[in-house]
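anyone seen this seq b4? input:
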Amino acid sequence: MSRNHFEVIILIGRPAAGKSEVIDFLKKTSPEERLQRFHINNFEEVDDFVYVWETFEIDDILSRHGKPRIWSDEKYWFKDHFIWNLYIERINLAYRKKLAADPHYHDTITALVEFARGGENGFGEAFSYLHEEILKRAGIIYIKVSYEESVRKNRKRARPGMEDSILYHSLPDEKMEFYYKTNDWEKLTADDTNYIRIKDFKVPYAVFENEPEKTDDPVKLGAELGRVTARLWGVMNKK
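predicted toks r here
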């Protein structure tokens, strides 16, 4: 890799695992330290939570005008499983627009792609929809917490009136259980400690261990993120 920074990091985990806290930490870190310590340059986020919230807003507008809701019911349960893959396609579109607007985009920018998935094939299915322009540049950081820890942190971060906030949105317990009680991360990484095979790509990955919690302490967060990005950087350069 000729550059000294990641071009794309796919930042994933269970809800409230610590993804948004990591990004907030990076925003508060000086550009010089961020690049030298974590190989992350000036960065831009592509977070599918923005699209999730927009889905609910659009359906609410339709309801107010007596029109049928498209993707969610009145309690914000999704009506069609494909919505999860539509969000990935929207990530693809947003990212490819950035490349089209600036062929030298990655000379100075690290793109952070963020999403959570659950279920027996949640991450695997999401990965299968990612565009090759992302996959050929990406490294994956998985923030690892148990389901129980995810529920605890999800409850803790809830702030009434801030449901649309990246840092403070949360899910009701019944949706946590329905959508996220299980996931397929261990299955995807069972055969290789460095790479996940996605389509025709071997995508490097590293695991941020966040239990006991480190993302509530900037010193611990920085140390773990340094360890994880150093490992991922090494694997990517070996590839």
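The domain at 8-48+107-238 is CATH 3.40.50 (Rossmann fold). The longest strand covers residues 201-209. kinda curious what u guys think
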